[in-house]
Design brief:
Shape: globular
Structural class: alpha+beta
Number of strands: 7
Number of domains: 1
Largest sheet: 7 strands, mixed
Number of helices: 5
Helix content: 25-40%
Length: 201
C-alpha cells in the first residue's frame, strides 16, 4: 500500500487518496518578509488544526508551492473528520490568527478524492490535477473577493460532494454548497463552493 510522506518519494503503484490544496490570497503582493511570515503562519495553522482534529501530519505527503501547499493524505484517513472537522478548525484558527495580524491571512482551500501515482517531482494523476483546478477556479477566487468578511473560501469536487458531503454525516451541511464549474484546456471541472457566511460549520 502506498504511504506518502513529506520529502520522501512514495512507493510505486496507483493509489486513491484524499487531496487538499491551500493557497494564500494576494501572496505576490506581499514583500519578502511578509511572504516568509505568511508561509510560517500557514504551516503553523495547518499543523495546529490537524492536531486539534486528531490527525497525524507525519503521515501526510506535503508539497509546498510558496504561496500554498498540496497535501495527499494517507489511505486510512478519516475523510468525514478531515473534510468537516479539520476545515472547521482551520477556519476558527484563521479567525484567531487574524486578530493580531496585518494584513489578514486569507485562504482558498480545495478538497478532492481521486487517483494518483508517485512521480519524481510529486504525485501525478487525476487527484492532484482536479484539486488544483478547483483551487484556481475563477468562481472560488471571486467568492473570496466578494466576501471580505470571510478569511477562507472552500471548494470540494463534485464526486467528493456526492460521496461525502451529501451523506449528512459531515460537519459541513450539504444545503450550504453552491455549484462551481470551470473549463481548463477544454476539460470541464465541476464542484461546489461552501457558502459559509463566515463559518464552515
Amino acid at each position: 500500500m502506498v504511504r506518502l510522506r513529506t520529502r520522501r518519494r512514495p512507493e510505486s503503484g496507483l493509489a486513491y487518496r484524499l487531496f487538499l490544496r491551500l493557497d494564500v490570497e494576494k501572496y505576490s503582493r506581499l514583500d519578502t518578509r511578509q511572504q516568509v511570515e505568511a508561509q510560517e503562519d500557514l504551516r503553523r495553522l495547518v499543523d495546529e488544526s490537524a492536531r486539534l482534529t486528531g490527525l497525524m501530519t507525519d503521515d501526510w505527503y506535503r508539497q509546498g508551492a510558496g504561496d500554498g501547499e498540496l497535501v495527499a493524505f494517507p489511505a486510512d484517513i478519516d475523510i468525514l473528520r478531515t473534510v468537516g472537522t479539520f476545515t472547521h478548525r482551520l477556519q476558527s484558527g484563521l479567525q484567531r490568527l487574524n486578530l493580531n495580524r496585518n494584513p489578514d491571512l486569507r485562504l482558498r482551500v480545495a478538497f478532492h478524492h481521486g487517483t494518483m501515482a508517485p512521480g519524481p517531482l510529486g504525485p501525478a494523476g487525476d487527484g492532484p490535477i482536479v484539486v488544483s483546478r478547483l483551487l484556481d477556479a475563477d468562481p472560488l477566487r471571486a467568492y473570496l473577493t466578494e466576501h471580505p468578511d470571510l478569511a477562507l473560501a472552500l471548494a470540494v469536487s463534485e464526486s467528493l460532494y456526492n460521496d461525502v458531503i451529501r451523506t449528512g454525516l459531515c460537519e459541513l451541511a450539504p444545503e450550504r454548497f453552491i455549484p462551481l464549474e470551470v473549463e481548463v484546456k477544454q476539460v470541464v471541472y465541476r464542484g461546489y463552493i461552501y457558502d459559509g457566511n463566515g463559518s464552515p460549520a
